[in-house]
Automatic annotation (TrEMBL):
Keywords: Hydrolase, Magnesium, Manganese, Metal-binding. Belongs to the DNA repair enzymes AP/ExoA family. Probably binds two magnesium or manganese ions per subunit. The keyword Metal-binding applies. Residues 4-248 form the Endonuclease/exonuclease/phosphatase domain. Its cofactor is Mg(2+); Mn(2+). This is Exodeoxyribonuclease III.
Length: 272
């Protein structure tokens, strides 16, 4: 089973890029972020024609998340994180695909920090961590997948010293990510590439893509029930170089039908 995450940065404006990648990569399940479209304008028909069923939570201008399933309809189990009934931002959706419960998330950016937006990010992270603990306690095969807007370590950012005060790299945020994975979640990309620099995001400004000045902020976290099935992981970084591309590249994992007996292999890695 191949699971991927892709911050499309506008699903309608970059639909051609998304469809091209889906045809090329053929993931079984996909988490999309930053749909930037209201609920009624999500391109469900075009995705269905491409062979994908979908559930989504749209949002005009910003945010918005979706889960796609190849040749099937995802079975939605949750829309929005528990813990704040007044939170109207479209940042979390959850569905079952192929026997795996997938939580698709788009973590708040949090800048400028400190400030109200950073406080909201930390509160959102607390809600995610509490929900993740419930999934972990249930012992089910689950994955938390999406744009976390967090670089967990110095290895995940091209020049760590330039990001020390940024909301994506502040100690509070990295500590929150460590607390989340400390529940027992496996950071699949890092498990497959323990010492390599690999990125999932390159800004549009300052020739970040040309300089390979990237960040790893898109993550796939696996519960113990499926972590042993991890056989491959990588980033389709070439997609970032396509015309009219998102500033993110798709990241993906592959799970075997049974627990892998050998250490994780890395195919089509994110490093040239």
């Amino acid at each position: 089973m191949k699971i991927a995450t892709f911050n499309v940065n506008g699903v309608n404006g970059r639909l051609a890029v998304l469809l091209r990648w889906l045809e090329q990569a053929r993931p079984d399940a996909v988490c999309l972020q930053e749909l930037k479209t209201p609920q009624e304008k999500f391109p469900a028909a075009a995705l269905e024609q491409a062979g994908y069923g979908a559930v989504w939570q749209g949002k005009k201008s910003w945010n918005g998340v979706a889960i796609l399933a190849r040749g099937a309809d995802p079975v939605e189990t949750r829309r929005g994180l528990p813990g704040d009934p007044d939170d109207a931002q479209s940042r979390y959706i959850e569905a079952a695909v192929g026997g795996v419960l997938i939580g698709c998330l788009y973590m708040p950016n949090g800048n400028p920090a400190p400030g109200p937006k950073f406080d909201y990010k930390l509160r959102w992270f607390e809600r995610l961590t509490a929900h993740a603990a419930e999934l972990m306690a249930a012992g089910i095969p689950a994955a938390l997948v999406g744009d976390f807007n967090v670089m967990p370590t110095d290895l995940d950012v091209y020049k760590p010293e330039r990001w020390v005060d940024d909301a994506l790299f502040r100690p509070e945020v990295r500590a929150a990510f460590a607390g989340l994975t400390g529940q027992g979640w496996t950071d699949a990309l890092r498990a497959a590439h323990p010492t390599e620099r690999l990125y999932t995001f390159w800004d549009y400004f300052r020739n970040a893509w040309g300089r390979d000045a990237g960040l790893r902020i898109d993550h796939l976290l696996l519960s113990p029930a499926i972590a042993g099935r991890l056989t491959a992981a990588g980033v389709d970084r070439e997609v970032r170089g396509w015309p009219k591309a998102s500033d993110h590249a798709p990241a993906w994992i592959e799970l075997s039908d049974v627990a892998a007996k050998r250490t994780t292999r890395a195919r089509r890695t994110a490093v040239p």
